[in-house]
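Hi! If you just cloned this repository, the fastest way to understand the data is to look at a raw example. We've pasted two of them here, unedited. The first protein comes first, obviously.
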Amino acid sequence: LLCEQLKPQRRVVHTGDTIYQAGERFGNLYILNSGFFKIVNLSADGREQVVGLKFRGDWLGFDGISSGRYSCDAVAMDTGEIWVVSYEALLAACATQPALLQVLHAAMSREIAHDRDSLMSVCTLPADARVADFLRYWAETLAERGMRTDEITLRMTRAEIGNYLGMT
C-alpha cells in the first residue's frame, strides 16, 4: 500500500552513513527496508548518547515533525536500504487513503511503546538485567521480522551497548 501510493525513493546506505542530522530541516520520513540503525543525541558538552535502535520495518524521522527540524542523528550500523518518503506527500496520500493513515499511526504507536519500555528498563533494572533485557529485545525484534535468531550478530560495540543501556 505504501509503495503503491507514495513510490518512495530507495537509497542504499553503508556503515557510518548519516540518514539525517540533528538540526537539519525536516521534510522526510524514512522506512527501513533492511539493515540496522542507531539514533544518537549529542549532549551540550559533546558526548554522544545512543537513544534508539532501529530495524527493518521501523520508521525514522518522527522526531522532526513537531519542530520542523530533526532532533537527533540517524546513523547506519551496517549496509542497508531505506525508503525515503516525503512527509507532505504522505499527508496528502493519508487524506484519501485511511488505511495509509492507520499504517502511519501504528508506526508512531510502536515507537512510543518501545521508548516507554526502554525508559522503564533503564530506570528500574539493575545492570545485568538491562543487558539481558536488551538481548531479549534484539532477538525478539529479529524474530518478528522473520530474521535468524539462532545466531545473533550485534552491530554495536560494547561501548555503544553500554551507552544505550545507560551503563557508561
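Ok, and the second one:
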Amino acid sequence: MATPTLRQRRRAAATQEILDAAERHITEHGPAALSLRAIARDLGMTVQALYHYFPSRDALVTALVTKAYDDQAAAVQAAVDTAADEPDLPRLVVAAEGYRRWAIAHPEHFQLLYGTPLRDYSAPVEGPTTQASRRMSLIFERELFDGFTAAQLAAADTPALSPSLLAYLEQLPHFGLGHLPPPATALMMSAWGHLHGLVVLEVFGHTSFLGDHQAEIFRMAMRNLLADIHRRIRPGAESPREVPTLGA
C-alpha cells in the first residue's frame, strides 16, 4: 500500500478533528442540536472550509453514525473477547452487557443511533451506516445461534407465523452466519427487541427507581431470554457441535 502523501495526511487529520469536534458537540448539546456552523466556529474555521471535508450536514451525520456503530460493535466484541473471565456466563449475555455498558457510558451517541431520527436526514441506502450496524448485529446473531444447524433453526418452536410474514422473512437479506430460516429470524428480532428495549429504558432514565440493581435485573433478563430461545430449538440426533453449522 502506497504511503499517504503529506496532503492526504493533513486532510485525514483535519477530517478527524472535525469528527472529534462534532462528537463533543453531540455530547454537550445532544444530536438534535448538531450544527455545522457551531462546529466550524469551535474549530476556528469557516463553514465553507468545513464543506471541503464534509460536503453536507448529511455527510457529517453519516460519518458520525458510522463511527458510533463501529465504537459500539468494538465494545461488544471486546466484551465477548473477555468472556473467558466469567466462564459460567453465556457469551450472549456477555455481549448484551457490553452493549448496555457502552450505551450507558455514551447516552448521547446511543441517542444518535436509536433516538428520535434527525430532522431531514436519511441514511444512504446500503451505505456505511448500514454496513456498520450489521457488524454489530452479527455478533449477537453468532452468540445466539452459533453451534445450531440450519435444520434445527428451521424447526424452532415459535408461535405459528402467518404466510405473509414467513414470505417476508424468507426474502430478507442475510449477512451473518448464513441464511437464517424464518423461525430463527423471528426469534432473533424478538430477542433484539427485548434486549434493546431494556437498554433504552435504562439509558433514558425509566428504570432509575431500581438504582444499583439495574445491572442485576438486566443480567437476569438476558439469561432468561437466552434460555427461552434455546429451549425452542430442538436438539438433533447428534450434538449441535458435532454437525455442520450455519457458519460452516
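That's it. A detail worth noticing about the second one: The chain has eleven helices and no strands.
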